[in-house]
Amino acid sequence: MFPEGNSKTPRIRFKWFSKEWKEEKFGELLFRINEKGYEFLDTLTASKSGEMLKRKSINYHIQVAKESLKNYNRVLKNDFVLHLSTYESGLAYSKEIGITSPAYDVLRFFDKNNNDPIFFKYVFSNKKFINSLVPFTYGLRQGKSINLEELNKSLIEKTNISEQQKIGDFFCKIDTLINLYNSKLNKLKQIKEALLQKLLI
């Protein structure tokens, strides 16, 4: 559902869409924001799932002085975050409003009307994008950082807003199904474990 190699169109596509995808510089798509002084908001952290989550929702407790929280950056819904593990998991998408570490770069769309955040959630977490970060990534494994100025010059493939929304919705539905089946799988494992314990008594 995304162009491969030098192609400007995907091999698999929804009906009625035929126009070529266009390239846009990363720095013309998103801009870095620096909004401080929101220490009263929930603190967010980047998760392995590629989303910004409230620390308290995942029982991640770390003591931070209130004065330090004043220097944390505000994150709004549909922002993206360049974090310490972006080099291996992509940009983190936020569906929450909160604040995050000043070590992270918070990025926001210039044009919110023609860029679907859910579509780009999948663009910025796929292997193609992650692999494209290699030239802008510096440092050792435990201390890697991405040069945002260099990343801003890189090209991102995108289609019109209608096709973006279709693709984003499609992958959201797949994720919902995966979560549903994972939940059922976990319940079956619990039932199995309970039955085994009873059999072995």
Automatic annotation (TrEMBL):
Coiled coil: none annotated. It comes from the Bacteria. Keywords: DNA-binding, Restriction system. SUPFAM superfamilies: DNA methylase specificity domain (SSF116734). GO terms for molecular function: DNA binding. GO terms for biological process: DNA restriction-modification system. PANTHER family: TYPE I RESTRICTION ENZYME MJAVIII SPECIFICITY SUBUNIT, TYPE-1 RESTRICTION ENZYME ECOKI SPECIFICITY PROTEIN. This is Type I restriction modification DNA specificity domain-containing protein. It comes from Mycoplasmopsis felis.
